[in-house]
Design brief:
Elements: H1 6-15, H2 20-24, H3 38-47, E1 67-68, E2 76-77, E3 85-89, H4 90-96, H5 101-104, E4 111-114, E5 124-127, E6 130-131, E7 136-138, E8 141-142, E9 154-161, H6 165-168, E10 175-181, E11 189-197, E12 201-213, E13 216-227, E14 236-247, E15 253-266, E16 274-275, E17 278-279, E18 294-311, E19 314-330, E20 332-338, E21 362-367, E22 370-389, E23 392-415, E24 425-428, E25 442-466, E26 470-487, E27 494-513, E28 516-527, E29 545-558, E30 563-580, E31 586-604, E32 609-624, E33 640-649, E34 654-663, E35 666-667, E36 675-676, E37 679-689, E38 693-700, E39 708-712, E40 718-721, E41 726-734
Parallel strand pairs: 4-39, 7-10
Antiparallel strand pairs: 1-2, 3-9, 4-5, 5-6, 7-8, 9-10, 11-12, 11-41, 12-13, 13-14, 14-15, 15-18, 16-17, 18-19, 19-22, 20-21, 21-24, 22-23, 23-25, 25-26, 26-27, 27-28, 28-29, 29-30, 30-31, 31-32, 32-33, 33-34, 34-37, 35-36, 37-38, 38-41, 39-40
Main location: membrane
Protein name: TonB-dependent receptor BfrD
InterPro entries: Beta-barrel_TonB, Beta-barrel_TonB_sf, Plug_dom, Plug_dom_sf, TonB-dep_rcpt-like, TonB_sidphr_rcpt
Length: about 725
């Protein structure tokens, strides 16, 4: 028997062409056909008069996406994007009762979660082994605020894998994540959803859409929630509203004005400390902090978009977004594990190995108080032109991105009298007492970091169609990114840098039939030291880190086009990673590489049975480093990840579904001192669908598996326990 490694097996799978799938299998349902290739569409437009279609098939319950704008700035058939793309549609989120951004990303293989860390709050994620905290977008604009995102106004979440600075500028080492907002249309709608669940979870959402003329409509989405947790003490109270108006629907000129206003009052979860190289074996609900800890976040985003279609082959767009994010945090994190009850007791390090019993160990609690303000102003203008040079057809997108960003972070030290600086209490590792923060705490303002950045990016990309079966994609972008930071206390007191970088992207696509597509691609990106407008002293004079990606893959539409199957092999490498030498100085002498395989499924197996899922194998390694981590596995990069969600319509009204999420073991930090075990979480649902209403029941983690969701590299490595068994009941009512 010949045994193959996962990579070898993946290579065989990528190049195995299942021709029998189209000849031996008949369509099980009248599934939506895949998007027509650009070449065929252009040919038709040159020979037939244009026809404006105003009707639209109802695909609101479909798991199978056909297009995405994340890979080309404009809606593009997924088969025409030479990179791996996962689109999580609204139908999947509703079926899972996934209300948070983090819950939605469980459907995306290769995404791992981080928790509140250092000066970072909100959604912190890794994508294919690299941080993507600043690679989150909303309708094509960088959504750089540090807040906990919600799905109440989203139609989908689109994930593009691999370095993508061509369209997005700085960042995107592992890829980008774009949130796609719901859009006004000419169909009247009034939907209300109420939800209640165990652990005192309550949530309400509203979706109203009202045509105001034959070519204009107004839409507003809103939510409010009061969420408890299987973790002790944790409580979140949030609300938000997203109004949007669109003029000129279906006409050559469309204008869209939108806003997102959200308020969060949450409790940041800094997890549990490590012990003997693993998360401390304490009860899942154990919370290290105070009952009145809170994180107050306010988000205000305002966007304007105008699109003018001169004709079928020429379109001009301009978009502007103004955003403000503010955070007032009074938080507590478990810092060192101590061998005694005093703040001066010996602290454990390097995985916190000890032979002492749990009852003899204590945890130092430190304050994480800070006020953060983010402002951003973005403007993008792009021109899309379709034309032919002889038998060669072109689809060119060129444009300019302008940005201005500011950031301030006022930190504080909070100290209980009699304790060392920034120490609030020392509590037992096991069964700490839950109290409010001591009333006599001394809070002193410390460092104020203020930074700003201005950016300009010029880009052009051409998708060249060579006959019916071949496409060549090539693009280039030039960026100028100028940033500065001023610290009132910390070093450096003041630093500024101006970075110039040219990014490229190239790909070749072969489409022998209308149901299969094969591609190879190459892309680059860059990461300046001041990318997130924060800076570690000693990095201010370093040039940007550089990233490159190679990918080969296939995209098939099987079962008559009803089921999409995607596969890819990838290699992402950060060739000059920042690393610290023995003297404490930073140099660009590091090298981090992640190789792997990815599989994706989305769509109908039969007219009653839908699936959505994926698998990723990631082999990550620190190839070079000056800090002793060479040969180690990058933080929060599991070897295997699998997600699968499936539903089956027992009758036209009754539907059942469920599936697993699997993540193998991973490390909390690059030093590999702390390992967090793998887990499989199972969810299930049952729903009754009527014309006017739906009743849905979801059981999350129905085996009550104890697992760790998010990882934090500091303080020896901490891990945040995942949600325990939770039951949710949801009623959706449609007035129209």
């Amino acid at each position: 028997m010949i045994r193959t490694t996962p990579i070898a097996a993946a290579i065989l799978a990528v190049f195995a062409t299942p021709l029998y799938a189209q000849t031996a299998t008949q369509p099980a349902a009248p599934a939506t056909q895949p998007a027509q290739s650009a070449a065929t569409a252009d040919s038709a437009s040159n020979t037939l008069p244009a026809v404006k279609v105003t009707g639209q098939a109802d695909t609101s319950g479909d798991f199978q996406p056909e297009t995405s704008s994340v890979g080309a700035k404009v809606p593009t058939a997924l088969r025409d994007i030479p990179q791996a793309v996962v689109v999580v549609p609204k139908a999947v989120l509703q079926s899972q009762a996934a209300s948070s951004f983090s819950d939605a990303l469980r459907n995306v293989p290769g995404v791992t979660l981080g928790a509140a860390e250092g000066g970072q709050i909100g959604n912190n994620i890794n994508l294919r082994g690299f941080t993507a905290r600043t690679d989150i977008y909303l309708d094509g604009f960088r959504d750089r605020g540090q807040y906990y995102r919600d799905t109440f106004n989203l139609d989908s979440i689109d994930v593009l894998y691999g370095p993508s600075s061509l369209y997005f500028g700085r960042g995107s080492t592992g890829g980008v994540i774009n949130q796609v907002s719901k859009q006004p249309d000419l169909k009247q709608r009034a939907d209300v959803s109420v939800q209640a669940g165990t652990h005192d979870r309550y949530r309400t959402t509203v979706d109203l859409n009202q045509p105001i003329s034959d070519t204009a409509a107004f839409r507003i989405n809103a939510f409010g929630q009061d969420l408890g947790s299987s973790r002790d003490v944790m409580k979140n109270k949030d609300y938000g509203v997203a109004p949007e108006v669109k003029f000129g629907i279906g006409t050559p000129t469309e204008i869209t004005l939108s806003a997102l206003i959200q308020h969060n009052r949450d409790q940041a979860d800094y997890g549990v400390p490590s012990l003997n190289g693993h998360p401390a074996p304490v009860n899942r609900g154990t919370f290290y902090g105070f009952t009145d800890d809170r994180t107050m976040q306010d988000v205000q985003q305002f966007s304007a978009r105008i699109q003018h279609r001169f004709n079928e082959n020429l379109t001009l767009r301009n978009q502007t977004q103004i955003a403000h994010y503010s955070t007032e945090a009074r938080e507590t994190n478990p810092a060192a594990v101590l061998t005694g009850p005093l703040a001066t007791s010996t602290a454990l390090t390097n995985g916190n190995y000890t032979t002492l019993p749990l009852s003899s160990l204590y945890v130092k609690l430190q304050g994480k108080d800070r006020n953060i303000n983010d402002h951003s102003l973005y403007n993008t203008t792009d021109l899309e032109a379709k034309f032919a040079t002889g038998f060669v057809k072109h689809d060119v997108i060129m444009g300019v991105d302008l940005s201005h960003e500011t950031y301030s972070n006022q930190s504080f030290t909070a100290t209980t009298p009699g304790m060392p600086s920034n120490t609030l209490a020392v509590v037992p590792l096991v069964d700490p007492t839950y109290t409010t923060r001591p009333s006599n705490v001394n809070e002193v303002a410390t460092n104020l970091a203020e930074s700003s950045a201005n950016g300009i990016g010029l880009y052009a990309n051409d998708t060249i169609s060579l006959g019916e079966h071949w496409k060549v994609v090539g693009g280039v972008r030039w960026d100028r990114y100028e940033a500065s930071i001023n610290n009132s206390i910390n070093l450096p007191g003041y630093a500024t840098q101006t970075n110039f970088f040219t990014s490229v992207r190239g790909g070749v696509i072969y489409q022998p039939t209308d149901w299969q597509s094969y591609y190879v691609s190459y892309g680059t990106s860059f990461d300046p030291s001041l990318e997130a407008l924060t800076l570690t002293n000693g990095q201010q004079n370093l040039p940007p880190e550089k990233n490159r990606s190679y990918e080969i893959g296939s995209k098939w539409d099987l079962l008559g086009g009803g089921l999409s199957v995607t596969q890819s092999l990838f290699n992402i490498e950060k060739t000059n990673a920042r690393t610290q030498d023995a003297t404490g100085a930073y140099q660009l002498e590091g090298d981090i590489r992640v190789r792997g395989y990815q599989l994706g499924l989305a769509g109908h197996i039969t007219n009653k049975w839908q699936v959505f899922g994926g698998y990723t194998y990631m082999n990550g390694v620190v190839l070079e480093a000056l800090d002793g981590t060479a040969g180690k596995t990058p933080a929060n990069t599991p070897r295997n990840m699998l997600t699968l969600w499936t539903t089956y319509d027992i009758t036209p009204q009754w539907q059942v579904g469920g599936g697993p999420v699997y993540t193998s073991a991973r490390y909390a930090a690059n030093n590999n001192y702390v390992s967090v075990g793998g887990y499989t979480r199972w969810d299930a649902m049952a729903a009754y669908h009527a014309k006017k209403y739906d009743v849905q029941f979801n059981l999350l983690n129905f085996t009550d598996k104890k697992y760790y969701d998010a990882l934090i590299p500091s303080d020896g490595g901490r891990a945040v326990p995942g949600l325990g068994r939770t039951f949710l009941a949801t009623l959706n009512y449609r007035f129209f």
